[in-house]
Every structure is written in structure tokens, then in C-alpha cells.
Write a structure and sequence with these properties.
alpha+beta; three-stranded mixed beta sheet; 3 helices
């Protein structure tokens, strides 16, 4: 929906509610669009420790020290 600057001033609270409900709110000066009101993305969901338990794994030797040959292959001499 498109509104002039004057309409936006008069109905600002209503325009905020429209944007929150997902509608696109455009503010125009004359016929030229100059601004858009959009909702801020909702906050990330709260993390819950342990929700991926059993879904992520690593090889038993994943954290073993690298051999001299492996270090050379990676450019460490």
C-alpha cells in the first residue's frame, strides 16, 4: 500500500501495524516513492543445549595430533 508523507504522519501507528502484519508500506512524496516501512526480523530463537545430541559426530581420531607428514602436507615445516 502507498501513502503520502502527510497521510503517513497522520496514520503512523496504523502503518506500523500494517507493516508488522506483513504488508508492504511505501511512503511517497508526490508520486515518487521515498521510504518503505518494514518489520524488523524477529529475534533468533533461544538456544537449547543438547537439542542436536546424537545428530552430530566426529571421527574418533579427529582431535589426535597431526603426524609430521600431515603437517608438511598442510605447509607447516
Amino acid at each position: 500500500m502507498s501513502y503520502t508523507v502527510q497521510q503517513a504522519k497522520t496514520n503512523f501507528s496504523r502503518l506500523i501495524k500494517e507493516a508488522q502484519s506483513g504488508k508492504e508500506v511505501i511512503i511517497t512524496r508526490g508520486k515518487q516513492p521515498v521510504a518503505k516501512i518494514v518489520p524488523i526480523a524477529s529475534a533468533a530463537k533461544k538456544r537449547i543445549p543438547g537439542t542436536l545430541k546424537g545428530q552430530i559426530w566426529s571421527a574418533p581420531d579427529a582431535f589426535d595430533p597431526l603426524t609430521d607428514e600431515e603437517l608438511r602436507e598442510l605447509g607447516f615445516e
